[in-house]
Structure formats: C-alpha cells, structure tokens
Amino acid sequence: MCRYGLPHLAWRSSGRHCNRIFRCTLLPHADSKEVRPVNSEILTVNNLHAGYDEHDVLKAISLAIHERSFVGIIGPNGSGKSTFMQVIARSLPQRDGEILLLGESLTSYSFREFGQQVGYVPQECEIKFKYPVYEVVMMGRNPHIDRFCSPSAEDHEIVRKALEQTGTMDFADRPITALSGGERQRVMIARVLAQDPALLLLDEPFAHIDIHHQYELIRIIRETSRGKRAVIGVFHDINLAAAYCDELVIMSDGKIRACGKPDKVLTTGLIQEIFRIKPVIDVNPTTGTPFVYVEDEWNLPAAKNVNVHLISGGGAGSHLISLLVHAGYSLKCGVLSENDSDCRMARKYDVPTLIEPPFSLLSPEKEEKLKEQVLDADFVIVTAMPIGWGNYPNIRVLENINPEKIIFIIPPGEVLADFTSGVATGTIKRLITAGAHQVYGPAELLEILQSGTNQNSSDFIK
C-alpha cells in the first residue's frame, strides 16, 4: 500500500481518522529528532526472519547496503523479494534479526523521521480519491514540511523537477484516478523522487511502464544513487538489472543465494539452479555487463526461403531470435530501441534490425521502412510486449498487410501490457478477427511457419 496518502492541505485538516479512509500510513508532523550523520552504510540487515501467519518467508537474511549504490534484487516468483521490501518499508513487521538504518534500529524512527530517510514505491499503489497529480507528488514533501506550515517555494521547485524528470508534467493538473497504470506508476516514482530520501525502495517499479519511459526512468534513478543515497530495486528482467545495477542480490526460497557485482553472481550454474533454465551468458555489447538468454533446443527441419519479420521489445523476443536464426529462417527485426534486450540479441546474430535511439519516439521515416519490410515478409510475428504510444506504430502498420500472415504470440491468461488506453488492444483484436493467428508459444508458432497454413484463432485475451 502507499506510504503517504494525503496532499498537504488535506492531512492538516483531516487528522488521524484519514488513516482509515485512505488505507495507508500517514506521516505525523511532530517535531523530528536531530538529523543523524550519514555514513557509508545506509542499511544493515542481520539474520532477518519475517513472513505471514505462521510461515517464515524470509530466512536468515543478512545484507549491507552502502551509499552511492544501486542494488538490484532478482529471483523467481515466491523467492521473498517483495516480502523483503515490505519489511524494510515497515509495511510488514520482522520476527527476528536486526535492521539498522543509518546505524540506528529501523523501529526507533518516528513516522516522520522514517519518511525523511526512506522512500518506497510498491508494485501497486491505490489512491481512490481524485487528487491532481501535482498534489500527489507534493505528498512526497510531507515529511519535510513543518506542522501547520504550507509547502515552501523550494518544495514546489522540487516537485516540478520530479514531474519533469518522470515525464509527468503534462498531466500535473489531471486527477490521479484518470491515469493509466503506467502513468500512475510514473507519478509514484515522481513522488518518491520529490521525497528525497536516503534510501529508495522500488518493488518492480517498471512493470507497468512502456519501454520508452522505462529506460529513461531507470537512468534517472541510477543517477540519483550517485549522491549520498542508496537504491534497492526488485527486477523481473535480469538483463535490465545487470545493465544498470552496481550489485545484484539473487534470492531463492527466502534466502540470499548470491550477492555482488553482476559479472560475479550471474553464473551459468547458479542461474540454471535458481531459475530452472539452460542459460547462455553473453556480454552486453553496449554496457559490457552480463547478458542472459535461453538457448532453446529444437529438432527443426531446415527452413527454405521463408522471410520472417519479428516485432518485439523488452526481451519478449530474445529467445525467438535465437530459435528462428538456428532454424534457418531469413529474419528481420524492429523497430527496436537501441538499448533494448531484443536489439542486442539481434545484433549478436547479425539480424537486420530497424533501430531508433534510446528514449525517442518512432520516426515517420522508420515507420515507412517498417511498412515496407512487413509487406515483403512471408510472416510477421508479434510478441506480447508492452505497448505504449512510443512503439504503437509497430502495431499500427500491420493494418496495411494481409492479416493471415500475422502471428500474435499471446500465452493463455496473459494480460496484454497496453499503455495506449486500449487502442493497441483494439487494433490487435481487429487483426485477429480479420484472420491473423494467435498462438500460445514457440511450438504452435513453428507449426504455422513450417506448414504455411493453420486454422486461424479468435481466442484473444479479454
């Protein structure tokens, strides 16, 4: 849940009863202790145990986080990553062990002091009331504003800077409830940047954010860790974490299995054991950091003169690039951001790829080139990638080609990450209704590619 829930004027008048209304923890504005001196160790965790009901999720966790560091936590689902973040954010009590924040017990801090030192962006943050985005971001300044005082000119300047950094200034006056999931998550990141804490906790903060903003935000967050601050982030994408984090913590079954520099902890044996895959660990040609992908093994007949164009992003197409190249298909990719995992995989196999610079929108020239390539292709494969306005033209151009040669890979039960207010989903549904294929995985995909025909499916996710 959110750590703070009311804009400045609202909490001043509403009092302690607001805690029930907003289902979140408000920050008392009592006078705080004197400021503690900052040392090189921001967070120290010794033999931590925590969990739910009678079940221990975290078991004997010990960890030290230093200032000027960006630490990424990775691991399979259910490994305890989010539970660890909730304990550090004081949303879940510890059962045993010691947690020191700036050298003092985590529980010794008042709510206001804690808010001055720790900022938390959870996976989901529910705000039910129609507060303007600007006021929501101003909530991050609450721990720094004296009781019965209004925000200062400095507070407003900090809020404006956070809005600009996260690309949310354009909807500063819009109600938070009117935004998409990805836009709301960017606002939550803006709020925690405005809070200016010593320790920043991010629990899968980019899960709902389109690729265009994802890389820009992670760059900004990394830059903030270069001051006297530490950042801990939970990541779903191993390669994204390896490229931007100073250190990685690998968790499994509530325990820390490895901790250190990405090139030291991302080993073939450990990744295979933890994630139950057969990984290939390469080097990211752009960052020089480890790059992990799965080398699929298929007994495939040789493909003859079949031209395939792959539309993907965010790592959704990396394994397909490897698979299709080894199967002998004539493959092209794009349009992709230069920093994208799929782009790096395409370069590894020398696959012709349409590329745009990082953080840029797809240009009309590149869209026209994409249109030519999908028209020439025998098949166009589209993965279940996140779709925002930045990469929506990749989908829009498909309305210009024969839908029967389009193959959407959408696993059963998977929710399409659509950040275009449903426009992209509507386009995909129209294409499937018109004859495009929908398959659930590589096996069905290969059947279509090898046979050239298959019964069309209209079983699109609702």
TrEMBL record:
Catalyses which reaction(s): an R-cob(III)alamin(out) + ATP + H2O = an R-cob(III)alamin(in) + ADP + phosphate + H(+)
Main EC class the enzyme belongs to: translocase
EC number(s) from the headed UniProt entry: 7.6.2.8
Pfam families: ABC_tran
PROSITE patterns: ABC_TRANSPORTER_1, ABC_TRANSPORTER_2
Residues of the ABC transporter domain: 43-278
Keywords: ATP-binding, Nucleotide-binding, Translocase, Transport
InterPro entries from the UniProt entry: AAA+_ATPase, ABC_transporter-like_ATP-bd, ABC_transporter-like_CS, P-loop_NTPase
Chain's role: Required for corrinoid utilization. Probably part of the ABC transporter complex BtuCDF involved in cobalamin (vitamin B12) import. Probably responsible for energy coupling to the transport system.
Protein name (database record): Cobalamin import ATP-binding protein BtuD
Species the sequence originates in: Methanospirillum stamsii
